[in-house]
Amino acid sequence: METLIKTIAVGFIGHKGSYLSSHWNKFDLFIIFAELMDYTFGFFNLHVEASHAIKPMRLISRVPSMRILVTILLETAPMLGNVLILYAFVIHIFGVIGVQMWAGKLRNRCFLGEDILTKYNVSLSPYFVPIFGGQSSFICSADDKGGGRFCSDVPPYQEDGKICTLAADEPIQAGQCVNWNMYYNVCRAGDHNPDLGAVNFDNIVYAWITIFQVVTLEGWTNIMYYVMDSYSFWSFVFFIFVTIMGSFIIMNVCAVIIATQFSENFARVTTEQHAGPLSFKNLFRKFVSFLKMMNNRVHPTKSSTHVKPTLHQVWIPFKEKFNILINTKLFNRIIIIAIFMTIVTMAIEHYNQPQELTRVLNVSNIIITIIFVVEMIIKLIALSWMYFADLDNSFDFVVVLISLWELGSQADGKLSVVRAFRVLRFVRLFHFLPYLKRQLLVLKRTIGEASTLCWLMLFVIFIFSIVGMHLFGCKFHFRSIDDETVDDRKNFDSLLWSMVTVFQILTQDDWNVVLYNAVAATSPWAAIYFIAIIVFGKNVLLNVLVGIVVDSFQARPSENIHQDCPRCPSLTCEAESSESPRTITGEYSVPATEPSRSNGSTSASEIPSPQTKNNSFTRFLNRIQKVLLWCQQHKDWSLYMLSPQNRLRRFCQRLISHKAFDHVILFFILLNCVTIAMERPSINPKSMERLILNASCCVFTAVFLIEMVIKVIALGLVIGKGSYCRSYWNLMDGFLVILSLTNFIITLVTSDKKNMLSILKVFRLLRTLRTLRMIKQTPKLKLAVKALVASAKPIGNIVLICCVLFFFFGILGVQLFKGKFFYCEGENTSNITNKAECLSANYSWVRKEYNFDNLPQALIALFVMYSKDGWMNIMYDGLDGVGVDQQPVKNYNEWMLIYFISFVVMSFFLLDMFIGVMVETFHVCQQQQKQSLQRGGNSRDKRKGREENYFRHYSLVRRRIYDLTTSRFLELFMTVIIFINVVLMALEHYNQPLYVEQMIEYSFYVFTVLLVLEIMLKVVAFGVLRFIKNSWNVLDIAIVLVSFIFIVFTVMNMEDTLPINPSILKITRVLRLAQVLKAKKIRVLLRTIAKTLSQVGNLCLLFMFFFFIYAALGVELFGNLECTPDYPCEGINQYANFKNFGMALLTLYKVCTGDNWSGILKDTLRPCRPNDKACPSYLWWASPICFATFVVMVHFVLANLVVAAVMQALEDSKEKRPKTESSDIMQQPQESPGEPVISSSAGTTEGVQL
Description:
By secondary structure, this protein is an all-alpha fold. The protein is built from 44 helices and ten strands.
């Protein structure tokens, strides 16, 4: 009907303004045809229902703001297509590598070496399965291969909780049993792959799915462990390279491209279409104007006060006094104290608290409520209707009314939760912190501008939910151990849980598990659905939010930006002062001496006469004056003992100013770092290695103590120009030396290894920061460090905002879930309903590691949710909570979804705030560095001008070869050959026929010959020097050399003697596909990646500093943690532990990527076993601090510094695009025979050659 009316009104087609002239009308017509097709198929009993997923899309054209947003996204599509091409190219390259190296490797299982059923009449599984259901597979490697797990590592068989040790032919005695697992001793390929068959490299399709999962950084370590078990321990190098290139570089390039393109299009479209729908801000402004009008009516002006003048004259002074009262500092301080008391009283509330504390909290709640009621009444009297013009006052009004309702009804249940909203009044204190207030304004602006994006995101989730219900509804059914059918919690059975599952996929928390279930329930093509959600939802729409945040930061006034980065140039002064502290100006000595002189003079002039005061007191003041005068005269003396002309001091000054001094100290610092890396708990205390490490520690302490003494003698300690304590580096060095001496003394005095003061030795790790002195030699590294230091203040403010959010949700979580995160652990708990029944059945009443029983535990759980790792499991525990001491029930309270999902949504904004801060500070610091290092020079362009017409003296044959090599025909021909070869390589798969293998091998030889011919033609056409100047040609030479090496190894049958599979050398041909990416728009991406790689190399040094410190700290704190079958771990395993420095680095990289780091944290928070003497007793507080600081610094700060580097590299690439495109000598324009050639060489006398 709508289409018919519009067609009659404006016409159907053929003129401007007709129905089909609008793309949105075309889309509506397409939906109508889809519905008609569904009805048509319905007559033939074919229920396709294709229109159900696209019917809701009509909403886009009906909402103007959403239509504008979708229009902007569609205009971003061309550049987005280039980004996706680059994205697919990277995944394809790594997928081909995976097929070449590990096809069929993940099928390896430990099979029975004997026929146990026939020989011993015992039925066993054909291969070893550690856990029923196949979700966790025991992948093995042959004994002659270099894998990390063999069949000899199969754990022993257990019977009734007892470990079996006997063989089948040995006599069985009482209490003994047969270890049947020892007969799983043959490692060979089976029929199944791990994770329900979804993870493997058997063909290119599964390889794409697997590499895509690795790039998303969810469950990638499990895939890496599979490959390490079956192939080689050193396979982690490949996966780390994939995650760095795919996730930290390519994915960030995609995010930056989408964010910047959206920002540019949004700025243009919003200027063209300024008028929009009625917003909440406009409604609030109208409401404020209405209140002003009401206020004027209630309180008219003096000209209209002829009615009842006496009442008005009495009321106005009374109101003015209350106005003065609410603006006084005392009133505000009382309210601030009440707010703090509110926070304190709600923060100390916890599960199973004493009754006395409960009564005290109730009384304090009444008192605080009365204070807020009085405040509200006073403000209502003073402001009348204008009280509601302020959103804060309106919010306070609602909270006070609910608090009164709670007190009146004596509610202990749901209404008590509303008290948690009082914490938001803490935001009032931000008005006294201007910089922090600016950060809040940026957050407010971001939320306001992203409101339409949130609606579009909800709309996208709704559409994908409907599609998921049609594809996977009621299909995620699996058998449990008791052969009962169990529905997976991550399902598409209803609209609610389908939307929750799609939202989970967008957050990428355990989305791979949903993928595995979908592939097992349907087919491998189900991966397309999940890839579409992640690409369009996560990589596109959520990256648009990044662009909105960056725009919000850049939209602030310019003077604020310069105030936000005041310390960008100061790092240079600090770094220079660390190398030559004597270059510091004397501005520090002025305030130290002049006040003392003035104080001395005033005290001398104001000395009272002996008639009024005692003469002894006067003499005492005179002595003080003499001491101050002596100190003023000896201010340049070191320690007031060594004059500037002292020989020892001058010798020390010459010593520290020599370059060799710094090199020697840096050498000892590096040696100290090596010894720190060698530390591990497993070293025998009586071994030679332990003695050497202890001796080296004493030597290093002595060396650094001598360095400190020499610098103090040369520079002075505190007073004087460029004294030792004037440099932050020297303060850190002195602090470390004092800590080392303290640790040395404690070690000598106490022999107790469990002494709490032994944790002081972990501060030795700060010595690694002294290597930051070398940043002066690398400007790009100095830029990264400057940006990191300059962002400390804004990052700290964002952390403070996050803390407020955490406090609010933490207190709210304690009110909602305290005492509900317990469960009964036993054999059969299906009939258990509460704690009493659990304990009566001799079961254990266990608390979840992440819970909300008190505020510290709630903050830990919220931080885990904030990092998006494991938040779904915490949410499920919250949904299942019934009550205090009650057994959980699945999905008991689904309304709690609002609490968890709202927190995750807010965390998206706050995480992007980190990105905005890093981008802004990095940009400002780089602009300052560019201004300081700006130089002029066009000599390079002049040299390029001389090279323009180098080919005009070629012979006829060479000129024809030149025309061929620069022609479009050769480029297209080689592109087609490359595509054919890549397609043939993608055809390789596990158990492939012989003819496929021969076809691929022959195509490899043909491709190598063609590539050699192309190189020879180009060498003849351009010459050797010009040929190697082009990086693409150097890549071609490398590919030819590697291809020849592979052919030699294959012909000589050296495949078995090499440590690596030589077939991996064939995959270098895939790199030729990069030449296809020489399109102009994709060149910007390639230049961005190239510039990013140069900067990321320096950023990796910063990563290594933090990784080194935390790896050594992890070995010190968690090196003794062990996992046993009776005490299993959730995150720590064979490849993720802190037993030595190397494994600690690999584990920290896993934590950096956010893959199951919450499981590692959970393992470190477990209570120590009774007989475990090596378990430190301070892990319950040291572990959260260690992991939280590492995740914040590396995952939230340094990783976002990479985003800032990518965004700046993109800006530089766009600025230099015209020059680079015109200077490519391999893309010279064709010269026709009759075209004049003009020489541009300087100094030539030749004119025009016809």
